[in-house]
Write a structure and sequence with these properties.
It is a single chain. The chain has 211 residues and is α+β, with helices and mostly antiparallel strands. The chain folds into two domains: 3-72, Glutaredoxin (3-Layer(aba) Sandwich); 83-210, Glutathione S-transferase Yfyf (Class Pi), Chain A, domain 2. 61% of the residues lie in helices and 8% in strands. It has a four-stranded mixed sheet, with helices on one face. β1, α1 and β2 form a beta-alpha-beta unit. α1 packs antiparallel against α10. It is globular and about 45 Å long. The structure holds glutathione. Glutathione binds next to α1. Residues 10-12, 34, 47-49, 61-62 line the site of glutathione (GSH).
Length: 211
């Protein structure tokens, strides 16, 4: 059976878990924390989670995992079959990952109350978030999902990335990025209301509490 390695605190782990639930794929959860030890690096060379273990071997990187799952388990597709539409989904996903999630991630130490983030880091993140938000607004249709009528992998990445970016933006930069993107609050509510999101978020909250 497919194994998903990671832990429920990780937003990337939760994206893959969300996709597995949506697609109804049975899997075994294996607890793994980010680690730079040789055992972990032999499986996940960046020491990051999540990664999946298939009969053919291991796959890392969330977007690669999501695409693999969609090809191997085609029921409830998370990407359109039309090549251009599929590329548009990947474009939105990449935009949010690189230009919203990544800058927001640099603010996490302060969000978690671990240490203050340097002013220069905040300024860089703030500027990149503004550019990322403009690009996200340009690419996404919010009709009602980011790329049309159906839930796609982009929506799953958006949901967990934006949760983190919203929290980091509010606490560290005193800005609410959700209100800066027209249609995003509605998309977040749409996914919030699903059983899958409620289960993944509940398990995330329990894991955070147990930390
Ligand atoms: N690009 C990776 C990012 C995964 C990632 O950053 N995971 C975090 C947990 S949410 C992690 O393992 N961090 C440890 C580290 O950066 O060394 C993916 O798409 O899966």
């Amino acid at each position: 059976m497919l194994k998903l390695h990671g832990y429920a605190v990780s937003n990337y782990y939760n994206m893959v878990k969300h996709a597995l639930f949506v697609k109804g794929i049975e899997y075994e959860a294996v607890t793994a924390l980010p680690d730079q030890g040789p055992e972990m690096l032999a499986k996940s060379p960046m020491g990051k989670v999540p990664f999946i273990e298939t009969e053919q071997g291991i796959l890392t990187e969330t977007n690669i995992i999501l695409e693999y799952l969609d090809e191997v388990y085609p029921d409830t597709p998370l990407y359109p079959s039309d090549p251009f539409e599929k590329a548009k989904v990947k474009e939105v996903l990449k935009t949010v990952e690189l230009y919203i999630e990544a800058p927001a991630h640099t603010l996490v130490p302060e969000l978690m109350g671990r240490e203050k983030v340097a002013e220069e880091t905040k300024k860089t993140a703030d500027a990149m978030l503004s550019r990322g938000i403009a690009a996200f607004q340009h690419h996404a249709s919010f009709s009602p999902y980011a790329c049309g009528e159906n839930l796609t992998a982009a929506d799953i990445l958006i949901y967990y990335s934006i949760k983190l970016a919203k929290a980091a933006g509010k606490v560290v930069l005193k800005r609410d990025i959700v209100t800066e993107v027209e249609g995003l609050a509605e998309l977040m509510s749409l996914i919030d209301a699903t059983d899958v999101a409620q289960q993944v978020v509940a398990e995330n909250k329990a894991a955070l509490k147990a930390m």
